[in-house]
Amino acid sequence: MTDKSDKGREYAPDFLTELFRNPLDEGYSDAARRKAIAGEPTGWRAAAVRLVSALTLVAVGFLLVVAYRQTVADEPSRSQARAGLVGQIEQRQAATDELQREADALRAEVTRQRDAALDDRDAARLRDQEAAAGLARVSGDGVEVRLDDAPDAVDAVTGAGKPDLGRVLDRDLQDVANALWSAGAEAIAVNDQRLTATSTIRAAGSAILVDFRPVTRPYVVRAIGPGDMADDFKASATARLFRALVEDEGMSFSVREVDDLTLPAASDPQLRFATPSPTATPTPRTTEGGG
Predict the structure, then answer these.
(1) Could you tell me the residue ranges of all domains in the chain?
(2) Residue 282 confidence (pLDDT) above 80
(3) d(CA 186, CA 134)
(4) Which of 181, 115, 108 is nearest to 143 (CA)?
(5) pTM for the full model?
(6) What is the average per-residue pLDDT within 133-159?
(7) Which of 37, 41, 81, 164 has its CA 20 to 30 A from that of 51?
(8) pLDDT of 96 strictly over 70
(9) φ and ψ at 136, to 5 degrees?
(10) What is the CATH number that goes with domain 140-263?
(11) What percent of the chain has pLDDT over 70?
């Protein structure tokens, strides 16, 4: 028994096969046949074709000239706006640095006044607590870890840039800091930004921020701790990962022991806490049925 629905069914040729067999569009074929029959245009037709072609070229050239002049005219304003933004950033950064120096001087004066008011034992105990919390400058032997981006890689065949796997990311600095804490570090600073219990290392676009302050390459992580801290860090999984990135991607990574390191104090933390409202009154609970 046959299926009547198959009668009259036609199968179109494969698209790619037909494309390779007849690559020229039928419209071009028809135009070529008409040209072969009629011949080249002559007289006013030839003049009209040449006139239309010339007008088209003139119009395209005019549009290109207008676009170029507009681009050139806008470039000074863009450069001026960019220079203005750069100037504002540099001005704000300079003002921030000046305020930080004033804050450091005021902190030093407060410390002197406080130590003068306390006895030697209480002052020493308070200084130790500040050093442990990252709020005081500390000195001692330690380790310096230096990281830097790999050179820009270019594919030798296509000339396009390769995936930038050799760039130092915020999580790389986080991993280094955590590995140093695990190795016994007592104090850590990233590009002279002291880490505390509330510090953050995060990315903002292509920049890396440590406690909301930008740090630039090369990234230098210094830590003060016990004498075996360097060996423990070199044996960690984090150090093995970066050594592999040096071999595979060209990232710069080095670890060395440093005598008599000095790490600066961190900025005062902005602590927030809640207080009960003076007008709030508790509402007594009631249960159904009383009692």
Answers:
(1) 140-263
(2) no
(3) 9
(4) 181
(5) 0.59
(6) 79
(7) 37
(8) yes
(9) -140, 150
(10) 3.30.70.1880
(11) 81
